[in-house]
Amino acid sequence: MSDIKSPAQRVPGHVWKTAWLGGMASWIDAAVIVASGIAFTLYLPAFGMNPWDLGVLSALVTGGLAIGALAGGPLGDRYGRKRVFSIDLLVLAVGLALLTFAPSTAFLYAGALVTGLAMGADLPVSLALVAEETPSQFRGRMIAFSQILWGFGTILVMVLSNIVTFAGIDGTLGARILFGHIFVIAVVVWVLRARLPESREWQVSTGAVRTVETDAPAAPTLGLRALKGFGGALVALSLFYAIGNIANNTGGQFSFFIITEIAGQTPQFATVALLGFIPIGLISGIVFLRFADTRGRIPLFIVGGVIAVAGMILIAMTNLMLIPFLMGMFISAFGTGLGGEGLFKVWTQEKFPTASRATAQGIGIFICRAAAALVAVFTPAIAAWNIVALYWGLAVLNLIALLIGALWVRRLRDVQMLRDQDGDTADPSTAPATV
Q1: pTM, two decimal places
Q2: Collapsed DSSP state (helix, strand, coil) of residue 362
Q3: Of 27, 125, 321, 340, which sits most exposed with the smallest number of CB within 10 A?
């Protein structure tokens, strides 16, 4: 079993740059999802829309993201990381411009779909570039760093929405501000990403460059064909991510509904209470980042998984009593942040070869978001019928995800990364541990 270099080593500046710019895919993901839930609601009166329109617009963003990830991963494996994420950010900017300056509902529908598709395509490709351009002893940390950026994307949207609300800004203008700031940041990121190099590991893997002079290499096997022999890893990771994300998605999408409509609290109280999730998520994300490249990440994940299950059980056993409900949600959010999506991102870089890494991650994201969207259709009705049953069900799902990760995924063989940032063959002694 391989050794792990000390996480105390200083990460080189160029690695941080790649991690920042690649990880901004997660920042944009969070910002768009949170902003759309608020901004589409603000657009309702001005455009004469009804709740059905709101549901369809939200579904277009989520569904587009799932389809975009499914398409973007294989494109990134075939045509290169940089080419795909440069194009998809431009398409994303177009979608965000439509949402920001929309004069009618039709523009909102088009903008929601385009934004979702481009955002989904960006996620697997950008994270693959970060992993492949980072020396092996830092890869876990740099991938986990994208989860920190995800949290900051949420924070900025929440701050802006509160400013808009307390300043008494017109609803339509407030919605345009929320989408507009993401549009500006997407354009800035696109400009800065133009300076990043293409993944050398991808180039070596596909024969775009060679480390020694040889005859022309055979055409590489890419995408889905390159996943032959990795079907078990794909199934395990997709199940781990999709099942474990259902409770998180329920908390993110329906906590406001549950607090106001089921628990009978005011919207003002719900807004303030939900702000507490932001520091919880950031703290747990920082803890996971600290252990992402060490053997301690699996014990940390197991402890976090037990905590996440306990949070759901606390809510179920107290039948939505307000204080235990909030405690249970905070506890579960903290536990999930010690592994969860962050560990999925790290594992997908380690368990799949370069030629299919983005494809595998895109499939996992597609399955996860599609499952979350399907469950979300029934969640409000289940919550209104029997809130206790809902949270017992979420506790079971968290437990299943924990068992899949601890007993199945972690035992899968790691795939040795081809090359490190400096172009030298990766040292097997620095490969991430599988425990």
Answers
A1: 0.81
A2: helix
A3: 321
